[in-house]
Amino acid sequence: MKITQLIVVSILISTTSMNTPLALAEECQVSACVDVYTQDGKIIIEGRKGGTTAVTPTPTDKATPKKVTPKKVTPPPVKKSVAPPKPKVTTKAVPKKSTPTPQPPVEQTASLNDRLIKALPTAGVAYQPEYEPLVDVPVFMWTDLPTSFMTQVKIVGEIVDVALRPSFTWSFGDGTFLSTTDVGGPFPDGKIKHTYSNPGTYLITLISTWNGTYTHNAQTRAITGTVKTTSIVTITVVNSPTRFKN
Known about the structure:
Immunoglobulin-like; 0% helix; 45% strand; rod-shaped; disordered N terminus
């Protein structure tokens, strides 16, 4: 069965916890901390391992005072008629004790930080009959998105498993909507179908919403935020031909 591939416009919508920071917990210093969230229509995986330690510098030794040597005093020549002057007495200078100045601790960083970005698949939309479906005749619709998105990444030496599933909101362009987790399919087994009551050109809009969980160290947590993708396709519905018989 031939199915015409339609032009699809994909729009990434950011519905995230904006710039969600990775929590700097104390346990990150001995084990890895991992956070997974959404940003700008993508999955962000952050990892941190290690922390900062304070190192107190060793105080310096006391300064050794310089040895002061007194100058040698040479008495002037003695005249017979004059009594010799008393020699000058020079005392040794007592050095002051030097106290080492305390130094502030120096932080040494020994940590690993990494950030990975994963993009989700975009959606294509198809319908059947593919050429001018008739009013009051069901139109079968479907998307080529997978029913799940799973990936395994290695970050800061740790293994993280990410699992997401999409849900769908269909807008058929005539004011009617359908919410489902089914991807639909062609005739006769497809579960997503819609009947138009009036001829005209309609915009079929599919909004795919992704959310899920991630697993690290045997612990499963919810991914913060969601990712939404929008696909749009045009359909033209016509009246069925009328025949008059005599």
